[in-house]
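FIELD: query
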Amino acid sequence: MAKGPVKYFVVDAFTDSAFKGNPAAVCLLEEERDEEWLQSVATEFNFSETCYLTRIANPDSATPSFRLRWFTPVTEVELCGHATLASAHILFTTGLVNSDIIEFDTLSGILTAKKVHDVKATDGTLKIQDGGAHEGFLIELNFPVVPTTEFNSAEVSPISEALNGASLIDIKRTTTDELLVVLPSGKDVMELQPQFDAIQKCPGQGLIVSGIAPPGSGFDFISRVFFPKIGINEDPVNGSGHCILTPYWSQKLGKCDFIAYAASPRGGVLNIHLDEQNQRVLLRGKAVTVMEGCLLV
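FIELD: result
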């Protein structure tokens, strides 16, 4: 029996402007598709992530639940922030859910997305409040902290060379096999000229490069993320990478609330809270739908 068309949306995540942030394709599945099809569609879209949502029927729960899977152009991944934000944005804005909270069943366990409304106070600062039928809102993702361990200093030289000779002040290896590389300043991160062929030869799955934001910038830290081994030379705004960055900068800066800037050419902003007690990272951001259509095959 022929499969029916699949509705999809293209969403720019961690931004309130079209053609900024990180684009993701969000596909709504009403029936199972095989692995080859899922990967082929992701390769066809050629975004850093294409994701697939399948509703899970659970009459005993008031919280809507969906299976969520993420694919780069070459492989499935276990965690992705911006495509989760994009998925929640589509569910909230198209009326597919009548709730301010969504649960996602993923390879990283149960993740939640929550609608929170940004309200400007009289002094112009940004306040966050839950619930209510307001037009402007952020989406808060509840993700696990990704722990880091010490890195073998004997392998530092090829990493510096892959980052075009940049000075490195710290390197950590994550339990998910990424490398967190810290440069002397956020300005160094922004001006970085990565050598993608050389990064492919570095240890680990990819490089998350960060530095303290310049004074007066309005940000706490700046990052860029390079994953050429899984088909992503530079991820425009890497949400899951902030599950690594946030606890690191919390320890260095002695705080739990951050505004972070992703300094890719597209750029993106994340509002972050570290829940130290529960070892969770709350990522808040906006998203914009820029395209919708149907997959016909």
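FIELD: remark
DSSP finds six helices and 19 strands in the chain.
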